[in-house]
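Curious: why these numbers?
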Amino acid sequence: MQITGLFIYPIKSARGITLPQARIEAMGLAGDRRMMLVDPSGHFITQRELPDLARLTAIPGAAYLTLRLDDGREVMVAPPRPEHRMDVAIWKSIVSAAVADDSVNAKLSAWFGREMKLVFIDGDSRRMASAEWAGENSPMAFADGYQILVTTTGSLRALNEDMEKHGEGFVGMERFRPNIVLDCDEPWAEDTWTGLEISGIRFDFAKPCPRCIMTTQDQQTGSREGANPMPAMGRMRMSADRRVAGPLFGWNTVPRGEGLVSVGDAVSVLGMRDGWAIKQR
């Protein structure tokens, strides 16, 4: 088994970037979801309520960040000033975040037709994953709940086979916004893994990932008019464990070390357990 894809999403809910190699840090892949858009009250904004975020790309640079819409409009973003801060809310977490310059926020607000601000995780920010699932002192950026999402090609193939059997088309892995994609042939084998080792780094499997309406959106346009994987996930992957409700795809994973991983790296399973309880139809 090996890595077949590495992805980061510099701004939460904006477009992803494909990488040949990534550095693993305590908060996940370097550069992943270190920025987020918030409304004036500080509440986070995602594709769930603003599908057009799929049209926004963040391009890291040596000195400046470039934000680009798919129609070619761009804005350059300077590193934020640490003293320019606000408290932001992401799910149940309240995080002190650095805020982009007013000119950048005005440009983004005009692009999307609603007032918003771009905020950054920095050295003065603190957010932790659930100690129940990830253990104590497990630092997070702006991902929904955990540092890294792992998916497998075998599970996507099984999902698409069910969709096509029901005349629902098929979807690509980008719909699930993973960080690490593995070429495991066995569908849902990841339900039985306790963790992985890649390039000497241990990755603990914390909990499966419940999926939402974002999986129904084209990740280039934000459109919800195309193939929809939710019915198939409902048929095949509805959790029977009340601790994690809903349809499941992929596993939330916690890194226990730092270093580089690359596409093509060999992946070893560290341990096995009983599979996650799935409702039978």
Q: What stands out?
A: The chain has a mean pLDDT of 97. The first strand starts at residue 3 and ends at 8.
